[in-house]
Target: Adenosine kinase
Amino acid sequence: MMKKYITYLLLFGFPLFGCQSKVAENSTYQQNWMQLEKENKALAFDADIQLSESEITLDKKLFQIRKDFLANTEKQKISLYNSSFDQLKPLIEGSTLFEILQLMPKGGLLHTHSGGITDAKWVIATARKYKECYVYDQADTKDFIFGQLGFFEEGKVPRGFVSLNKKLSSQPGFEKQLTELLLLKRESLCTYSDYWIEFEKRFTRISLLLPYRPFFKEYYKKGFEDLVENKVQHVEIRYVFDELYDFKHGKYPLETSVTDLQDVVKEIQKQHPEFSLKLIYSSFKFLDPKSIEKQLEIAFKLKKEFPNVISGFDLVADEAAGNSIYSFREDWAKLDELSKKYGVKMPLFLHAGESVSVFNKNIIDISSLDNPRIGHGLNLIYFPKTMELIRKQNKLVEVSPISNQVLGYVSDLRNHPARILLSNGVQCSINSDDPSVYGYNGLGYDFWVAFVYWELDVKALKKLVFNSIHYSSLNENEKKQSLVYLNKEWDGFVQKMNGKLK
Ligand SMILES: [Zn+2]
Model:
């Protein structure tokens, strides 16, 4: 310490001691400082949360656990801030914090996608049980890609596909290879990857798998069970509708997807009556306005039939490659007319600003549309007027920190834009986006990342958790019930943790 001080003296000369102490004693200065600190805090997204005595106790414990964890990684010289999620996953899983966050009630998962929910290893293990399941084991063509899975009737198997079970049994290394082909990893922060091309290949590989009705039901049952186990009580899926089929009946109407999912939910509810599901009808940004007009008609028809399941509409896929939200303005202009025609409202839940570029202006549209929740909103911070409007309009940003890192939008998670949103009073919730593609399930990992890298406290955690129900598409009555359950679970969690943690 002394050596360091002498070095500074040599470099900068003697400090003006008198002047320093005068500033420190200046009470107006101190008062201003205190006042400003208070005013800054009052602007934060969680300013309205008052913690109970036991929540304050838990907060102190969690603060200390994180402090110890960080000190430990420092001691071991672990590069916490320059490592990717995949590199840190074992460390996260072995941490006390993760154990705690796994047990934390998480409310709802508001942002996830059909095809991105259920564990990839489970997908392979379950698909191979069907003798009609095949895998494409040739080089990519324009029709199929290596590792693509599908169900086919005997005698109708396209060239290049082989029995999945036979392939897995005869080639021991193939299971690992196929698992890797279904996962997207950012091996290290400096490895080059064409993220979206690779990302979309993961969905292509299972695209023929999911509409097969018997597998479809199993897939969502497993996905929901995993969520429930992870203390997620509500889920909203950006759902891309596809006609289900089986070999006895051929194709089923779109409605069958909804009624089948309702049946799956009912089954889950036998054990977990609190569990609920909403679907957000999703189409693609790479389509043209005419096609989206047709998609909107289908969405309205479905919502009229299932007003309690279908909640709204979204356009997904890579924003950099797709059309802007503004280019669909004629479609949005027809929403009111369609609402009158079908007697239901169709709020938008658009992905907007999943980008770090100021040339992507999708976020600007949000404040002018009936769009209560925004997918990602990463570049919202570069549009201050819009950020202000979204805060005032009380719209929520669905944040998916791990997804953002895997897809290359953020590297050091301390610099995630959501921190700026939170401190500026923009409401957010924590989401996993496509956990099966990123190699995990549940919301524990995303909460871990947010808690550690964004230096959150229990107040912030609580607000994020409760936001996921407050801003959900549940109707007023459903919301009330869901909140009763969440409150009870939350209090139980706080109590249990206080008893367990030193
Ligand atoms: Zn998404």
